[in-house]
Amino acid sequence: MFDAIDTNALRPLLDTLTSLGAAFILGSVIGFERQVRQRTAGLRTNTLVAVGAAVFVHIAGRLTGHEGAVHVMAYVVSGIGFLGAGAIMKEGANISGLNTAATLWGSAAVGACAGASMIGEATIATGFVLAANTLLRPVVNRINRQPVNEQSAEAVYTVYVICRRVVQAEVREKMTELLEAATYPVRDMAQHAFGPTDAEIAATLYASAVEAEELDHVMTLLEAETGVLQAFWNASAED
């Protein structure tokens, strides 16, 4: 009983309230910007991440001192890694949610600072997270609108084959064989229905640069295969 009274003395409680209150406010600021943009992890998620990180770090500091708080911070970092992984979606060669996962990581860092009673540092970190998500956005959009410079930028090359569904297994095997023979190994391959009787096979290459004539020749060979209706390739800017 007396231990509980000592632990919950007024001054430590005020210190806890200040740390968690700061984490709540700063996490809400980050989350508000995400909510306005209708991201997967919005106001509540970022606030909870910041407050949760602050609670763990603050309690560890109260119980075992600075060394314990540092150990807990390491677990917070790895734990947020698992949470961020859940926000990342991969569909074929397309990946989304990386910025959401990174923002959650930033919210956890803000909460950890607040939990360690480093309110000033938590406020500064919040400013940088917001700046990355707002001030850099026009810069990214401007860069993305520029034409891709093939001499300085890498690209993702994808080969598409539309064929009869009954021969898609054989076509897929032949597709891999011809691409490897042309020294363009396949990194990822996906296939799905294309109409009632046909299928589309998409093969993403490891290559970040290709010789157009070589790849066109492979397309000609593929189109000569039985059951192949069309073969083509395209390039897109790499993320």
Automatic annotation (TrEMBL):
Coiled-coil spans in chain: none
Localization, UniProt: Cell inner membrane; Cell membrane
Residues annotated as transmembrane: 12-31, 43-63, 69-89
Annotated keywords: Cell inner membrane, Cell membrane, Membrane, Transmembrane, Transmembrane helix
Domain MgtC/SapB/SrpB/YhiD N-terminal span(s) in chain numbering: 20-140
Top-level taxon of origin: Bacteria
GO CC entries: plasma membrane
Chief subcellular location: membrane
Residues in MgtC-like C-terminal domain copies: 157-233
InterPro entries xrefs: MgtC-like_C (IPR048640), MgtC/SapB/SrpB/YhiD_fam (IPR003416), MgtC_SapB_SrpB_YhiD_N (IPR049177)
Bilayer topology annotation: Multi-pass membrane protein
Pfam families noted in UniProt: MgtC, MgtC_SapB_C
Role description: Virulence factor required for growth in low Mg(2+) medium and for intramacrophage survival. May be involved in regulating membrane potential by activating Na(+)/K(+)-ATPase.
Protein family per UniProt: Belongs to the MgtC/SapB family.
Protein name, UniProt field: Protein MgtC
Organism expressing this protein natively: Pigmentiphaga aceris
